[in-house]
């Protein structure tokens, strides 16, 4: 239609290029003509007829092709576009339906497909997954209280069949942390990496996960065999929500259920924290995951509420699966 505009997110679906411009969805032309099998149409990707357009009441934040459908993300809702087989312009068989009327996308870079699931981060900073049914799964529920403290800038990519989310923790425009949903084991778990020098961007390239950091491009994962990085040991930190008592109470101990991926179980430091910040510390080292005696210890906290902080340094993915405060 001879109008010039800066396109937003693009997608290729049904032999057409689909592009956004604010609240407008435009799609390219197919040149329909008759044949022995009926009306067919060759794609003309550089032509966007004035009739090939849909307008909405909100800005379109992202487009993703998933399960032969086109998914449109808005700020507080998600729509799915089906049909589009007709070569006519516009195709009369296009149909929109609502995937969610209450969830949207927090950042246009926070949606990506992983292992047959369309993942996205909604406006409530919840990591969700969509597998085709008209509902979503909560992927960040185990540590949702952490996600709610982040800023509003995220970027999701898939590397080695794992969801990698770059997180801006303080809304300064850079990524200070990477959160990785590791699905390499039967029970998926989140891993976190913090960077003293923030990252500007992350992107998979071949067998490597790269990042822009300052004026350099660095390798985060997938080092060449001639330049293998030694992983060593890594610190781990977990913290519970405060457990509230109706009266000032004495908190005397803890029990945990743990699974150790490290060859030698690491020392675990348990810190009971009172409402006023007073602490009580107990450090233990279990013989193995089934060492019930070591996984129980004493604390001395007198307060209206108490929360636990767990710290350890291991060489693999060690899991604290349950914490009980007494």
Summarize the structure.
This protein has one helix spanning 144-147, and strands at 10-13, 16-21, 24-27, 29-35, 38-44, 53-55, 62-66, 69-73, 78-82, 95-100, 111-114, 117-121, 127-130, 137-138, 154-159, 162-167, 175-182, 189-199, 201-205, 208-213, 216-221, 234-239, 243-259, 268-274, 279-284, 296-314, 319-325. By secondary structure, the chain is an all-beta fold. The strands form 7 sheets. Strands 22, 23, 24, 25, 26 and 27 form a 6-stranded antiparallel β-sheet that branches.
Structural class: mainly beta
Q: What order do the SSEs take from the amino end to the carboxyl end, as H and E?
A: EEEEEEEEEEEEEEHEEEEEEEEEEEEE
> Which shape, going by the Cα principal axes?
elongated
How many beta-strand runs?
A: 27
> What percentage of the residues does DSSP assign to strands (E)?
over 45%
- Specify Rg, calculated over alpha carbons: 25 Å
Q: What is the helical fraction, as a range of percent? A: under 10%
Structure annotation, total helices: 1
Largest sheet: 6 strands, antiparallel
Low-confidence stretches: 34-39, 226-231
Query: What is the CA-CA span between the terminal residues?
Result: 70 Å
Mean pLDDT: 86
Describe the fold and architecture.
This protein has one helix at about 145, and strands at about 10-15, 15-20, 25, 30-35, 40-45, 55, 60-65, 70-75, 80, 95-100, 110-115, 115-120, 125-130, 135-140, 155-160, 160-165, 175-180, 190-200, 200-205, 210-215, 215-220, 235-240, 245-260, 270-275, 280-285, 295-315, 320-325. The relative contact order is 0.08. A hairpin with a 2-residue loop joins strand 4 and strand 5. It has about 325 residues and is an all-beta fold. The strands form 7 sheets. Strands 22, 23, 24, 25, 26 and 27 form a 6-stranded antiparallel beta sheet that branches. Strands 1-2-3-6 form a 4-stranded antiparallel beta sheet, with no helix packed on it. The protein has a 4-stranded antiparallel beta sheet with strand order 7-8-9-10, with no helix packed on it. The longest helix has 4 residues, at about 145.
